[in-house]
Amino acid sequence: MDGTRPFGAALLEAAMVDGAAVRQSQSGRTLVEMLVALSVLAMMTVAGAPTLDEARRAAALRGTAGRLWGIMVRCRAHAIMRQRSTALVFERAAGSAWRCFIAEDGDGDGLRRDDLESGRDRVIGEVLELGGATAGLGILTEVPVPDPSGSGRIDGDLGDPVRAGRGDIITFTPGSTATPSSVYLTDHHARMRVLRVYGGTARVNSLVWRAGWRRWRSVGM
Prior knowledge:
Radius of gyration: 32 Å
CATH class: Alpha Beta
Number of strands: 10
Distance between the termini: 93 Å
CATH topology: minor pseudopilin epsh fold
Helix content: 25-40%
CATH architecture: 3-Layer(bab) Sandwich
Number of domains: 1
Order of helices and strands: HEEHEEEEEEEE
Largest sheet: 6 strands, antiparallel
């Protein structure tokens, strides 16, 4: 040895330095790629949020309308099977929420609030709560909503989503007739549904509408 490093050692050191530089470069590229991927994911999440929120609202509205439609069908079937007028009774709950329940005529004079209070007409079945931040009874007021009948816009008290004559009671009779009614539901954003009860047949039809549509569309449950 002459005091200088062996030639092989110098080569090894150079290789180690080059390797470290390569690893540092690769690490830098990996970090940049990761940051880019996270940025793209964040943008996709932000862009997709309204779509996800809209889908959630639509599903909640469809579910609430389906439960209400189901209780109307049970009410109609009960009136026919029991040969006794049966009604779906709506009443306001706390705030803007609503609830409804089925009641049976007990004295032959039709469903009446005073008879319900006295017990002559009795409540049967569960109470259906129809309130919530995502979907419930209501009519949109921020946008013009067309009348489901096909002429003009919904008029009257827009704070009253139950259009069932006097008393917010939809009566189904043993002869398959009913109180002509329209019950409006909304997602409190841009969508609405309406359940329409036809007086001569007691059938229930479901329609859907969203902001921007010129007319309501028939839709199944």
